[in-house]
Amino acid sequence: MEESFVFRLPQEIYFGPGEGRRVGEHLGRFGKRPLVVVGQRFARESGILEDVLGSLARHGLEAVVFSGVPPEPTLEVVDEGIRMAREARCDSVVALGGGSVLDCGKAIAGVLPNGESVVPYFEGAPLARPGLPWIALPTTAGTGSEMTNNAVLTDATRKLKKSLRSPFLVARVAIIDPTFTHSLSPYHTAASGVDALVQAIEAYTSPRANVVTDVLALEAMRLLWEYLPQAVREGENAFFRKQVAKGSMLSAMAFANASSGACHGLAHMVGPEFAIPHGEACGLLLPPVIRFNKEVLKERYRDVALCVGLQGGEREDWGELLARAFEDFVRGVGLRTRLRDFGVPREALGGVVREERIGRSILENPRPMTPEDLRTLLEEVW
Ligand SMILES: [Fe+2]
């Protein structure tokens, strides 16, 4: 655990049913002409986009809508958004959607005052100036992009998924309105919730964890473990949705400051290679990562296991107990737990681990991981 640390979050975080429909009030303090970034269907079909545009209009703000952001946003999509925002002279961004939309809106806001294209920054050039102020309005409870300083983007030609990272990317305002998640399908509820749970566990076991992130991560795990299965079963239940939204918010606060781990690193490798959605990739990869790390993280995994209500004796193999219980949990909310369930051919596993795909979350794993270890790990969940 870190002795010295810094803790960063958006300047303001609003939580509560109905908060999302007050977005105009908040944006009006720093923008007049926001680019509203949305995905392909959900925001429009659920009526949420209309409510958000209504709130902006009531405050005299002229919104420009950039719609159609796909899951796993590519560099081209971000560049298209930058072009649109520049031509329309937008001075701020509102990103309304799941993690992909938030990451795309965040990248557009961050890059626009710095250059024409996201590409040089994706390749590692630092952002020299602050981005446009932006507001995050998540419609899923899970990815945590509303709190973090990174945008996960995909270079489609190289099937390379990695983070654009800068302190300038943090949202000015994050608004977590649990009612925005009420019409999410059971599948999306489960996938985003499992992502949040994995993020909390990885934040807690991260070498960058500190006393603040620990407190947040533990409460996040407790809430998600208890309420996610119920929110998947009863999506209309406002109480379950609110508890899951709280768990997701706390998880995001924790991992935004402690970092995610090897499970996320691996998920970013297999996701673009085999078109496996992020939440499901994280859900199936965590058990082998726990097994790989269980000797060096004994106490931490015991804490996690106890926090989610597992019981064991004095000589318990806590890592193994947790790995099994987690796999049952993932299956219980209806997600797949094997790579072959996605039609991945076994022979294809060898090509997944490439040097350029090995990012920070793998390099910082508490037990050093070789490319060979990573391949063995993938074999285990095939
Ligand atoms: Fe994630």
Automatic annotation (TrEMBL):
Gene Ontology terms, MF aspect: alcohol dehydrogenase (NAD+) activity; metal ion binding
Keyword Oxidoreductase appears in the UniProt entry: yes
Keyword tags: Oxidoreductase
Residue intervals of the Fe-containing alcohol dehydrogenase-like C-terminal domain: 189-381
InterPro entries documented for this protein: ADH_Fe/GldA, ADH_Fe_C, Alcohol_dehydrogenase_Fe
Occurrences of domain Alcohol dehydrogenase iron-type/glycerol dehydrogenase GldA (ranges): 10-178
A UniProt-annotated Pfam family: Fe-ADH
Domain of life where this protein originates: Bacteria
Family: Belongs to the iron-containing alcohol dehydrogenase family.
Name of the molecule in the record: Iron-containing alcohol dehydrogenase
Source organism per UniProt: Candidatus Caldatribacterium californiense
